[in-house]
Structure formats: C-alpha cells, structure tokens
Amino acid sequence: MSAVPADLRIASPWRTALPAIAVVLLALVAMYRDTAAAMVDIWSRSETFAHAWLVPPIVLWLVWRQRAVLARIVPRPMPLLLVLLAGAAAAWTMADLVVVNAATQFAFVGMLVLAVPAVLGLEVARAILFPLLFSFFAVPFGEFMLPPMMDWTADFVVLALQVTGIPVFREGLYFVIPSGSWSVIDECSGVRYLIASFMVGSLFAYLNYRSYTRRAAFMAVSIAMPILANWLRAYIIVMLGHLSGNKIAVGVDHILYGWVFFGIVIFAMFMIGMRWAEPDAPAPAAEPATAAAARAAGFDARPLVATAAALLALTALPHALLWGLQRAEAGAAEAKMALPDELAPGWRRGDVPDLPWAPNWLEPSAVDHRWFDGPAGRVGVYVAYYRGQGPDRKLVSSLNGVVHMNNREWNPVGRGSAEVPTPSGAVPLQATRILAPQPAGSSTRPHLVAWRVYWIDGRWVAGDAAAKIHNALARLRGRGDDGAAIVVYAERDSFDGATAALSDFGPANLPAIGELMQRTRDAR
C-alpha cells in the first residue's frame, strides 16, 4: 500500500472491507462467547493444549505477511457461501444441544473461517488459506485418541522388552518385569506430543516449502514421528528404571525425561527438514498508483455490507432456537430416581458386598447403586440419571465410563458387545471385562464383567455417538434432555461365570429398569 499516493489510498476498497470483516468476526466471538470461553479455559488448565495460546497471534502474523498480496485484491463477497456457514451454524446447534464441546468449538472456528470468503471473496481466502486452516489448531481436540494410543504404547513396550530378552507379564495396560511393575497412563499415550508436533510441523512446512508435495510429506512425518518417538521414549524409561534398580526415570523425572526426549526429536526433525527447504517466493513488484486507483474505482461496498449483515443474522438464529428450547425446559423438576427393592420376580435387593468398585459417571442429577440377589447369584446395578445437562453435567463424556483410564487397581482387559433379548426387542450393550485387585493371601483374582447401555427418551442405545444423536433429537422434539447410563455387572471366579450371571439377569430385569427410567422422565 505504501506505493499508492495518499489521495488514492483513501479510496482503497480495504477501507471498507477491513472494518466490515473485523465487525463480523468480533460479533461472532461475542455471540458465541461461551464456546470461545470454553476453549480458553481448556488452554489455561490443560498442558496438552497450552500451545493453543499461540494460535491466534500466529494466524495474525501469517496474514500480515501476506499484506502486499492482499493489497492487490479487490474484496468481492460470495453470498453463496452463506449456505456453508448455515451448515456450520446448524452443526454448532446440534452439538450444543448434546453438549459436545469439541464439535461446538470446531463449528465456531469454522464460522470464523467461512466468514472471510463469504464477506471478502474466494481470492482473498486463497491468499491466506493456510492461516485460515491453521486457526483450527485453536480447538482443543484429540483426547479421544488417548485409549488407543495408550494401548499402542503398551503393545510396543511389551514387544520391545521381549525382544530385549526381559520376561514380561501383561494385563491390559499393566505389565510386570523382574525389577518391578509398570503401567501406561494418559501421560504415556503421547497425545500431547502428537498434537504439538503436528501444529509446529504444519507451520514449519508452510514457511519452508513452496511445493505442496513437500509440505504434505513433512506434515505426515510430523504425525508419525511423535508416535514412534513416544513408543521409544516409554521403552527407554522402563529400561532406565530396570537397569538402575528403579532409582532413575521414576516419579517426576519420568515426565521430565519424556519432554527432553521429545524436544530432541523435534529438533532433529526440523534439522533434517531444513535440508529440503525452498526459498520464499519473490516479493511482488510495486504496483503503479493508476492501477490501484482503477481497481478501487470498480469496488461497490453495498454487496459486501449486505453479505456481512446477512451473515450476522444467520448466525444469530441458533441462539434464538436454543433460547426457545431452554424456556420450554426451564420448568422441569429436579430428577428423583431410586431402584426398587425388587425388580423382576426372584431378584431382590441384597447386602452390600465387599467390592470397592463403582462405575465412574460425574455429576448425575440422580444416582443409585444397588445389588440384587437372584437365581444366578448376586448382580450389581448402577444407574446415573441426567437432566438439565451442561458443560459440567453430561451423560456422555470422555470422563465417564466403567473404569477411569487412570485407575491403577481395576484393570480392563477386554471390551466387546452383548445383546439382551426382551419382550420389546433386543437391547444392545457394551461389555467390559475387568480384573479386580488380587486379595491379600489369595492366589486368584476376581473377574468382573460389566454391561453398559444408555436409556434416552424410551430407547436403549449402546454407543456414545448414537446416544448424543438421540439426545439431540429428543430435545428438538421438545421432550427434554433426560437420559441415563445403566451398568449391570457381576463378579465371579471367571469371565464366563460373570457373563452367564448377566445373561440370566438381563432379560428378566432390563424391562423393569426401563420402566423406572420412563416414570422418572414422565415426572418432569
């Protein structure tokens, strides 16, 4: 812009376009401030996503680097892109209905990104495409990878120990070697290394390569490298502890060694990547003032302002819909639910056994946990009922489950599915096999099998995603957000014996539990 005389620069289309897009982006942040605040809260309290604080300033800097290119472009709005923006707003609405934070945050950032081509045009968006896509790194996303990456880490460490010649006995995420026992917890999964590596690797590829092939290749390496490095890190830590008699690589220095090793790996990745670095594209030549003036003369601000106004009106609609639903649900009474002393005939409430375990569902509206004695022996029933769900009270959450991922006593060693026949149809369930802590003085360990299912608006639902969808549809039909997690479990000397007890209990008692859930829901 410095090549344009002051009298012509005043007429630049960016004098209108910049304030317009700034107003749109700030208005979106204001309208969706709860979503934005939830993102910032996670950045503040989670070490895994602390890097997201750097995303907004990096995006602004990357856009600033393109200022000479942008100055030559005449902003021309693309109203058709409001259709995609409406889809993002609808996705945010559905996600907010069932309190899926990651989905609301992706939809929110998607609206911010789509606002740029909608108001300023595709040519502007192409010039700053990478900064726009880089904005999605601000979304704290990826914790769903914790369980599989913990399993992969355990698989590699056990295999490496066996290849090294060290005998190892494994149960799930726990393994024992002659010098002691180890377990893979969430910090060992490598998720935080993976997310940080992919972000900085993407930025490195954009800044150092012009070839899309090289960029894609380096970004792929930035994904694979931290996974492999984390496996090797975990193995080295176990070996250090083993060879030192558990004097080093345990406790706090366990984590410290991990970050030092990760830093060395990232540094090596960058040094190798620099060998194929490409020079920056030459800076554009100064533009004649007459060309800038001619370009500005063809600019009409009215379509741009109209598109910006339509965009803001469109993105305000989800809040109007949610306001109406919240008003309709505001009068619901506090949920009250209790299991009866008798379910099906022959299954009566029993004494509390010496079993210090319970499923892990946080902040339910009502909860009951009882044991029932029947023809197949003793079976436990846990019900967590939810009403008025929000960020701190969610039926389906990564923090809810049969066994918390950091539980070091109760060891889940297998997962699968089950199906219970009932008069109204088969009920699908998710099954988890769990080894209990070994009692003192005993040579055997109790075997626990837990069956889990959701009840939502009169339906039995097995999966987390399906539960979210049914919960959203129930709210849209005006039936509220009531739902429950039901876990039935049995402890026996073998997994087969526990499964047999549940197979006897389920068909007889799940219908009675479903009727109790329906009565609780109808008493809103």
Q: What does this protein structure show overall?
A:
The protein is an alpha+beta fold and 524 residues long. It contains 17 helices and eleven strands. It is flat, with a radius of gyration of 29 Å. The termini are far apart. The N terminus is likely disordered.
Layout of strands and helices, then pairs:
Elements: H1 6-9, H2 14-31, H3 33-45, H4 55-65, H5 67-71, H6 82-97, H7 101-120, H8 122-127, H9 129-134, H10 146-164, E1 169-171, E2 174-177, E3 180-183, H11 191-208, H12 212-243, H13 252-273, H14 289-297, H15 301-329, E4 348-349, E5 366-374, E6 377-386, E7 411-420, E8 427-435, E9 447-456, E10 459-461, H16 464-476, E11 483-492, H17 495-522
Antiparallel strand pairs: 1-2, 2-3, 4-5, 5-6, 6-11, 7-8, 8-9, 9-10, 9-11
Helix pairs in contact: 2-7, 2-15, 3-7, 6-7, 6-15, 7-15, 10-12, 11-12, 11-13, 12-13
Give the helix level as a range of percent. 40-55%
**Number of strand segments:** 11
* Helical segment count: 17
- How widely separated are the two ends? 63 Å
Q: What is the succession of H and E elements?
A: HHHHHHHHHHEEEHHHHHEEEEEEEHEH
| Main sheet characteristics | 8 strands, antiparallel
| Approximate strand percentage | 5-15%
Structural class: alpha+beta
Envelope shape: flat
Number of domains: 3
Relevant terms:
524 residues; alpha+beta; 3 domains; 8-stranded antiparallel beta sheet; 3-stranded antiparallel beta sheet; 14% strand; flat
